[in-house]
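Sample 3 of the quickstart, ligand uridine-5'-diphosphate-glucuronic acid:
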Amino acid sequence: MKLCIIGAGYVGLTTGACLAEIGHPVIVTDCDQAKIAALQRGEIPIYEEFLDAVVARNQSAGRLQFTTDAPAAIEAADAIFVCVGTPPDHDGKANLAAVERVTRQIAECATGDKLIIGKSTVPVRTADHIRRTLATYTRSGARFQVASNPEFLREGTGIFDFFHPDRIVVGCDGEPAAAGLREIYRPVVEGAFHCPCHDRPANQCGWRPPVWLETSTTSAELIKHAANSFLSLKISYANAIADICELAGADALAVLRGIGLDHRIGEAFLRPGLGFGGFCFPKDLSAFLEIAAELGYDFRLLREVQAINAERVEIFLRKLRESLWVLEDKTLGVLGLAFKPGTDDIRLSPAMAVVQALLARKMRLRVFDPRAMERARRELPAEVIFCDSPEAVAEQAEAVLILTEWPEFRAAVWPRMKARMLRPLVLDGRNLFRPDELARLGFEYVGLGAGAAAPAPLPAAAAR
Ligand code: UGA
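Result:
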């Protein structure tokens, strides 16, 4: 099946490369000329494990092409994936201008029948608007099938997730659309692929047949928002439990493990720390709250999830103030800038929020991140010192802060770091270490939820 992907961001680029990898001819188009020119030269604009190899292999096999000529790409395709951004507006609602623009473009230039698949995370009933827009603006009378196929790829592990999905959700309101999507995903559903992450056939790389879930487009759209907000809810729950554990003198990691081992709850997404960030959870939560309100439902539970998450950075900063007393002019080592390990993405990163808050308090910062330095350099002022290793951030530091749980930071030579610090204090915003691990090396260790000296809960007004 000939495929067109509109939008070469995290979702579009990863999905397009993977669809080419399972054998489909794919053309990826984007209005950003510089990005497409870079991709044509074989340069990948984001860090995503295995993506460069998958793109290179399929580009040279002629299965994956990049173009700014959207009309030609649309015309050549049987099915078109809409993967453009839906950034938040000032009121938290998803901005659908790009979705509408490409829908009109498809309507205006397609002459034959097409399957249009929404992959961008959108408010419920967007597919209905897409159908109406296509019918309104088509000049040729082409017939369109519209489907919603939400993506559940995580940044950093997107290629792995594409080939090892728990489920593939396909929202379509008619058999031709369902049949088209079954054909597109058949290799992933049947395990008929060579896994690019393990360089092994599917039956030797831990692949299991995903559940194929066919729903209406409206239900599929809701599944995406409901899934992301449930995962956010788990994280805020874990963070609330961590605060209670500190007050009670209990060990949050033990408590959360104790509940997560119940298979009905599950251990994933119960890691307490600085909270969730990135370009998905925060914006999807706000958008879902707005959608619910428009439908007439006040989703109070999700407002509390947001509020608990918003407190995390301030609670961490209070611990820092309690440890250092005066912050001004002191030097800190900062480990981690990305919103999570495995990515160079710093959008809505809790680590960047901490860094900005420390700069506002006139602290001197020495920072290191294995992948996000280039992006962070564009955002941070010139006085921030960018170091080339975890050890270098420790130089003359009054404390080292762990803000992203990169495995590289566990592997650093901490005794050497201690020797370079003015004071051997570590504040671990991600619980990368157990308290005794660094204490044994002579560090003062402050984690989040480890039952150490607990700050009083924030006053209600400051917490909101
Ligand atoms: C998330 C979802 O996991 C994907 O399924 C979804 O496709 C994607 O959003 C999307 O909507 O496009 P992603 O934002 O890449 O993926 O990152 P996650 O791995 O889910 O982590 C999100 C945030 O939660 C990170 O800041 C992470 O540090 C934080 N987190 C995660 C915790 O604080 N604790 C946890 O236990 C787990």
